[in-house]
Amino acid sequence: MKTRQVLVNLFQACNDGGSVSQLHSQLFKTGILNDSFFATKLNSLYSKFASLQAARKVFDETLHPSVHLWNSTLRSYCREKQWEETLRLFHLMLCTTEGAPDNFTIPIALKACAGLRMIELGRVIHGFAKKNDKIGSDLFVGSALVELYSKCGQMGEALKVFEEFPQPDTVLWTSMVTGYQQNNNPEEALTLFSQMVMTDSVVLDPVTLVSVVSACTQLSNVKAGSCVHGLVLRRGFDSDLPLVNSLLNLYAKTGCDKIAANLFSKMPEKDVISWTTMIACYANNEAANEALNLFNEMIKRRIEPNSVTVVSALQACAVSRNLEEGKKIHKIAARKHFELEFSVSTTLLDMYMKCSCPDEAVDLFQRLPKKDVVSWVALLSGYAQNGMAYKSMGVFRDMLSDGIQPDAVAVVKILAASSELGIFQQALCLHGYVVRSGFNRNVFVGASLIELYSKCGGLGDAVKLFKGMILRDVVIWSSMIAAYGIHGRGGEALEIFDQMVKNSSFRPNNVTFLSILSACSHAGLVEEGLKIFDMMEHEYQLQPDSEHFGIMVDLLGRIGQLGKAMDIINRMPIPPGPHVWGALLGACRIHHNIEMGEVAANNLFWLDPSHAGYYILLSNIYAVDGKWDNVAELRTLIKDRGLKKMLGRSMVEVRGEVHSFLAGDRFHPDYQKIYELLRKLEIQMGKEVYIPDLDFLLHDKEAVLQF
Q1: Residues near 585 by beta carbon (within 8 Å), at least 6 away in sequence
Q2: pLDDT tops 70 at residue 137
Q3: In angstroms, how far is the first alpha carbon of the chain from the final one?
Q4: Sequential DSSP letters for 338-378
Q5: Is the pLDDT of residue 658 over 80?
Q6: For residues 78 and 86, what is the distance between their CA atoms, to the nearest angstrom?
Q7: What pLDDT shows up at residue 706?
Q8: Residue 566, helix vs strand vs coil
Q9: Mean pLDDT over residues 492-500, rounded?
C-alpha cells in the first residue's frame, strides 16, 4: 500500500517527457505495469508531456484495458483532432468484451462525429445512448449531442435533445446558445440566453457570454452587447481574456472605435487576438494611421503578429497608401513564412496596387504556388485602379486559360475594369459572356452592366437593360441613377430617384445617395444637391461618409463657393478623408485660392503621402501665382521621396479597332495625322473665341517634365 502511494505521488510530480519515461521504467521493474490504474495514469501523462504514439504504445501493451484506459486513449486522439482514429478506436472498443462504453466514452465519440460532420454515425451513437438510461440521461452526453447536431446544421434535432432534459445545466444551455449563434441564428441565441438568465438553478459562466456577445456582433446590436458588457462587469468576468476579446470585437465591428479603444487601454492582459482586433477596428473605421501606430507598438513590445494581424495592418497601408510601412510588414510576413498564404498574399497584392506599385504586385503574383479566383481578381482590379484597365482584360483571359472559373465578384470586377476603357464592342462581348455563364440574374452583375454601357457611351443600352429587368433592387436603381449622372443628365437622374422613392418598395441607401449627389455635382445642380443631402440625413436617418462629404465639397467647389465647402468639412462628424480634401484642392486650383489650397494640400500630404498628384496640384496653384520658390520646393520634395505621377492613357475605338496613347505620345503609327488634326481643331476653337487656360497648362507641363 505504501509503495502504491509513493507511485501515485511520483505520477503527480511528473512534468515533462523525461520524467514520465523514467517512471515508466520504474513501473516495469516493479512488475505492476499491468495494473489498469497505473496504465491509465501513464497513458494520460505520455499524451500530455510526450507523444500520442507513446501513449498508444502503453494502451496496446496492456492486456486487459479498463474502460478508463479506453477513455484516456480516446480522449488523447480527440484532443489532437484525430477524429478518424478516435472513431476507429471506439469501434474497436465496441467489438471487445473488456469494457462497455460509459457516459464518458460517448461524448468523446460524438465529438469526433461532430468534427467529421458524420451525422448518420452520430445518430447511431445517439440511439445506443438512449438504450442505456444512465448514459442517455447524462448531461455531458446531452451537451455532446447538441454540439453534434449544431455543427451539422440540424438545430431542430439539437432542440429536441435539449428539451428532453428537464433541468439542463450551464454546459447544456451554453451548447444550445452557441449552436444557434454558430448557425447564423443570433436572434434565437439571445432569446434562449434570456430564458437561461431567468433560470435560478443555472450559473452563468464566461464561455456562455462569449457566444452571447458574438450573437450581438452578428446583429450589430450595440445596445444588447452593452447590456451584456454590464453583466460581465457585475459578475466579475472582466478579467476573462476570451470574453473581453469578444466584447472588443463587438465594438470594433459596429464602428464604436472610441469605446473599443477605451476597453483595449483598460485590459490588464492582452494577447495577439486583442491587438489584432484593435488594429482591424482602426483599419476598418478610417483610422489607418492609428492602426499602423498600434501595429508598430505591438512589434516594439515583441508580441508576435499572426497572419490575421498582418492582413489588418496591410489593409491600413492600402487605405492610407503607405507604401513604406507596407514593405516593412511584407518583410515580417516573409520572415514568418505566411507571405504566400492566400489571405496575406491577396492583401499584399491589393496594397501594392493601391500604392501604385503594380510591378511589385505582379512579381508577388507570379511567385504564388497556387492562385485562386481571389488572387486573379486582386490583380485585374489592381490594374484598373492604376489606369491600366487594358491589362485587366489580358489577366481575365489568362485566368480563364488557367482553368479558373470566375465567380460573381470576378465578373463584377472585370466589367468595372472594362468600363474604364469605354470600348462599346467589348461591352457587347462581355454582356454575351455574362448571359452564357448564367450571371445575368445576379443583381450586382446587372448593375455593373448598366455602368459598363453608360461609360461606353451606350446610355440607351443601359436604359434598355434597366427597363428589361423584372427584379430591380436598390443596387439596380442606384446604378441607373449613376448612369444618367455620368452623362451629365442630372434631371433624368432626379426623375429615376423620384420613381424609386415613390413607386418601389426599396429605400435609398448610402450608395443611392452617392449616385444622385454625384449626378447633381456633374450637372451643376447645387440647390437640388443640397436638398438631397439634407433628405439623406434627416428624412432617411443615414449617416454620410467621407465620399458623400467629398461630393458636396466638389459640388460647392465647382461654382466657387469655397467658404461653404470648408464649412461642410468643419461640420463633418468623422475625420475628412482624401476624397474630401482632394475635392477642395481641385476647386482651389480652378479658383486660384492659395491659402485654402495649402490647408487642403497639407492634410492630403499627411493622409496620403505617396500620391504625387496632390503635390503637382499645389505646385500648379503656386505656379499660376508666380510663387516659383514654392514650386521648386515641391519639385525637390517629390524627387527626394521618389514619387511619380501616374501617366494618363487614353483609348478610343475606331471601326472596331482600339487605339491607345499617352499625352504627348509620338509612338503611335499615325501620330503625325493625329497632331495635324489637333492643330486644325485648335484653329477652329480660336475662331469660336474659346480661350484655353494655357498659362496653367504650361506650368503643369513644365512641372511634370522636370519630375
Answers
A1: 597, 600, 601, 604, 614, 617, 618
A2: yes
A3: 91
A4: -TTSHHHHHHHHHHHHHTT-HHHHHHHHHH-SS--HHHHHH
A5: no
A6: 6
A7: 45
A8: helix
A9: 95
The answer to whether 210 touches 226, Cβ cutoff 8 Å, is no
Pairwise CA distance, residues 633 & 636, whole Å: 5
Smallest CA-to-CA distance from 204 within 183, 235, 250, 227 is with: 235
Which DSSP letter does residue 15 get?
-
Dihedral over alpha carbons 143, 135, 99, 25 (to 10 degrees)? 40
Please give the residue that has the higher pLDDT: either 108 or 688: 108
Instruction: Using pLDDT thresholds of 50, 70 and 90, give the confidence band for residue 616.
Output: confident
Question: What is the Cα–Cα distance from 440 to 438, expressed in whole angstroms?
Answer: 6
Choose among 394, 488, 412, 408: nearest CA to 450.
412
Contact 504, 477 (CB under 8 A): yes
With a cut of 90, say whether residue 37 has pLDDT above it: no
527-567 residue pLDDT tens: 999 999 999 999 999 988 888 999 999 999 988 889 999 99
Distances (CA, A) of 536 to 239, 505, 524, 543, 545: 42, 17, 19, 8, 11
Q: Other C-beta atoms within 10 Å of 404: how many? A: 16
Cα 356 to Cα 353: distance, rounded to the nearest angstrom: 5
What is the spatial distance between Cα 554 and Cα 600, in angstroms, rounded to a whole number?
13
C-alpha cell at 611: 500620391
Which alpha helices (DSSP H) does 456-543 contain, by range?
A: 459-467, 474-486, 490-503, 510-523, 526-534
Q: Grid coordinates in use for 622?
A: 503656386
**Tens-digit pLDDT profile for residues 570-608:** 988 888 888 899 999 999 988 889 999 999 999 998 888
